[in-house]
Amino acid sequence: MTSTPDRPAELLEPAPPALLPPWHTPEREALQEQARRFAYDEVLPVANELDPQKGLLPESLLARMAELGWFGITVPAEHGGLGLGVFEYCMVSEELARAWMSSASILARSQGLGTAVADPARRGELLRRSAKGEWIGAIALSEPDAGSDLAGVSTRAVLDGDEWVVTGHKRWCGNAEAADFIQVLVRERDPEPGESRSKGLVNLLLEKDRGSFPVGLTGTPIDKIGYHGFLTWDLVFDGVRIPRENVVDEAAASDEQGEAAARAGFAAAQAFLNTARVHTAARAVGLARAALEDSVVYLQEREQFGHPIGDFQALRFAVAEMAAQVEQARTFYRQVAHLIDLGVRCEREASMVKLEATEMAVRVTNQAMQLHGGNGYTTERQVERHWRDARLTTIFEGTSEIQKRIISDRMLPRSPLT
């Protein structure tokens, strides 16, 4: 693959003060510049080498990200994290996704994930490990028959003395084998008549060694057309044992209501998905920006009829439309991230930005492929990678159709007959 020229100057120049958004700070600008330099200098060469081989994120790259503190962007400073918010987490992720989406995605497997346990001392220890990049996990939510419909989860957990015994089938679990833990959404009981279908769901924390699966758990890698960098797994639980106290969700960590609080598995999964959807929007913006930047370079390199093809108005207008769409999506995801950091409930807005940014990324990367002509349909150029990875963003963390359902359900009441 050809490399993008070092950090195009026009894309790094700070905006004039009059154009700075209200959430701009010098600290955020410095963090963005640090992430951008790292993405260009250290991530992009690795991506260009390993992605064609379906290679994995190297330990050396993970170590560098840990050194920079990015596994603990949202972890409180008293636990060794950067003590920042969803805004900074998404901003760094956009920069990383511009180089290789998986390098942004691995951040979602930290940030205090898998630390919301009831014991404060243990929670503090896990947060410190998370901030250091020593507690990187995986999330097992989806199943063959329960993806967008998480209330349909059927993987069963039964108490046997001081342990949960877990049996069932999970799918689309990224990073499962390489993780230090897997957070598993399971059903401990069936809902009573009249109860919501989500009743009886609970999140359990399965601790494990990196590079292997515990007794009773087997996994098969899913062969994907893109999103390389780490493996995505199909998992079968056959009597996996998890300590009784390893119930994990925000309610268990912050509430004093005992067993009732510790059973808020579905609500915790939904809260996780709100941030995950904004994070996906940021990754989509990074991918679209990559395609745009690569196209700007290519249109100046490629000559036809005695001119760089960037001289032709039709192609120039295509670039203008791509740039406008990228900028619009970036502003939207930063607004929603800002609202989340303020504590505003934004399920609808999180779905809106996930829908808009990911569909935009598909359009922009597809247009970039067209601008590259035949060269875009080869592995010699990075644009095919951006296109493959962008296509996935409209599917994971809830498909575009699911986002439309969430948005419309919060705007338009359903008739009793439906």
TrEMBL record:
Question: Which residues belong to any copy of the Acyl-CoA oxidase/dehydrogenase middle domain?
Answer: 138-240
What is the name listed in the Swiss-Prot or TrEMBL entry for this protein? Acyl-CoA dehydrogenase
Residue ranges annotated for the Acyl-CoA dehydrogenase/oxidase C-terminal domain, each copy included: 264-412
Cited InterPro entries: Acyl-CoA_DH_CS, Acyl-CoA_Oxase/DH_mid-dom, Acyl-CoA_Oxase/DH_mid-dom_sf, AcylCo_DH-like_C, AcylCo_DH/oxidase_C, AcylCoA_DH/ox_N, AcylCoA_DH/ox_N_sf, AcylCoA_DH/oxidase_NM_dom_sf
Q: Where is this region: Disordered?
A: 1-23
Tell me the superkingdom of the source.
Bacteria
Family from the record: Belongs to the acyl-CoA dehydrogenase family.
Give the record's keywords alphabetically. FAD, Flavoprotein, Oxidoreductase
Cofactors required: FAD
What spans are recorded as compositionally biased (Pro residues)?
14-23
Entry-linked SUPFAM superfamilies: Acyl-CoA dehydrogenase C-terminal domain-like, Acyl-CoA dehydrogenase NM domain-like
Q: Where is the Acyl-CoA dehydrogenase/oxidase N-terminal domain?
A: 25-133
* Entry-linked Pfam families: Acyl-CoA_dh_1 (PF00441), Acyl-CoA_dh_M (PF02770), Acyl-CoA_dh_N (PF02771)
GO: which molecular function terms? acyl-CoA dehydrogenase activity; flavin adenine dinucleotide binding
